[in-house]
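FAQ: What does the model actually see?

It sees only this:
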Amino acid sequence: MARESMEFDVVVVGAGPAGLSAACRLMQQATDEDKALTVCVVEKGSEVGAHILSGAVIESRALDELFPDWKAQGAPLNTAVTEDQIFMLKNEEKAVKVPNMLVPSTMHNQGNYIVSLGNLCRWLAERAEQLGVEIFPGFAASEVLYHEDGSVKGIATGDMGVSADGERKDSYMPGMELHAKYTIFSEGCRGHLGKELIERFDLNSSADAQHYGIGIKELWDIDPDKHQPGLVLHGSGWPLNDASGGFFLYHTEGNQVVVGLIVDLNYSNPYLSPFDEFQRMKHHPVLKQYLEGGSRVSYGARAITKGGFNALPKMTFPGGIIAGCNAGTLNFSKIKGTHTAMKSGMLAAESVFEELTSAGEGGKELESFYDKFEASWLYDELFRSRNFGPAMHKFGPLLGGAFNFIDQNLFGGRIPVTLHDNDEDYAQLKPASQCSPLEYPKPDGVLSFDKLSSVFLSNTNHEEDQPCHLQLNDASIPLNENLSKFAEPAQRYCPAGVYEIINDEAGEHFQINSQNCLHCKTCDIKDPAQNIRWVVPEGLGGPNYPNM
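And it is asked to produce this:
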């Protein structure tokens, strides 16, 4: 059955903040210059926002530019930050509150807002549709299409109704080809098409190694007497004795808080479980005081691209551009990526529109993008934060924090030295024989929980009879190499219980519970053999995050 095709001026892959901002900016320019433009956005989630997960405290800087009247239009930025508190957790009971004067200036949040990023994306999608953008939720972009000259032609969505053994079911529907003069790839962290494009066009040849973290988050209803709208807590230290990272707890609207932990994926102990570190952390008095007596509403996890300026790949190639967290535009020094992703999408849109209105043919490299990027506040902001992550990786939280205080507060991010970290995250795992197993307390069902009950709260679902979207390059590696050398860390780094070593009558085997997958991409990043390849499942599959 042949695939049908549709023609557009621009196809945007991913309805996150970068993709939706790009789509809106494209149509705004078309309206301003009275030009006809066809733009579509494809989104693998069941609806816009279903797969969106972030803290999130955001700056409105990019939104101010995109929709100056966003308040009048009802953008869901309802909770302004009222107070910052930063803690260093010394152990399971004690903590030191860090004076604001000693905190790097980039981590202050005056003027920012606590939001549900999923709800913000839903609002942006409404604005995009009002401007004439076509949005197709539930359609997973599974393949990049190329012209004969090697330039990008567009994308194809995945086939529906294929069984686990590759046979066509009665419900079979072939994917559709979406052809475009330019395609903007804004899939979020470790997008699988972005990964392909980076390799195909050698886009990271001049960049440092990319770095990642895993962010795990819960939404809680808490006692109204404990709720302080606008209060923002950040911290580091315990329980991450074997890793770097930090926690957050934000008091949002409606007597709710969001609480989470970010664990850098360059940790070395294969016995470490980011999920269990998070569950243990919530028992610390700094966090427990707000959560106790409350109830957990939702759960999710997502990898974070945090290599920053030094790890940015070349973003353009013939026929397309990579934007947002797919490229790695997050500003780690601020622990924020929404405003930077939005701005990168807007700059991409301006370059695409300029090319379409000057030549009109498409398929060329967007040479003007770099002039726009380097002249923007986005470039300046990312450049000023270039040392933040490498300093933390090289020197640890105390000395690295001191370096960053000097760099950010005294030099404004322009200290005359650039630190580099070119050690790949997955290569940092040590053999299990060189590490001590970590024992985690059993969840109490009050503040801490198990993986399966957590996944249930994410509303994750996949059509069970479909090809596994977690592909192994070599099916023998999990047992023959990863288990013997690293105690198979996939059992622990996955926050959803996808990977298991099973011992039964048939013997020992490696089991992939793909139904549980949260689409966090951690396995694609952290597997020590780089043997796991994450590809898109059928559209509509994955989590359905409410208010996250």
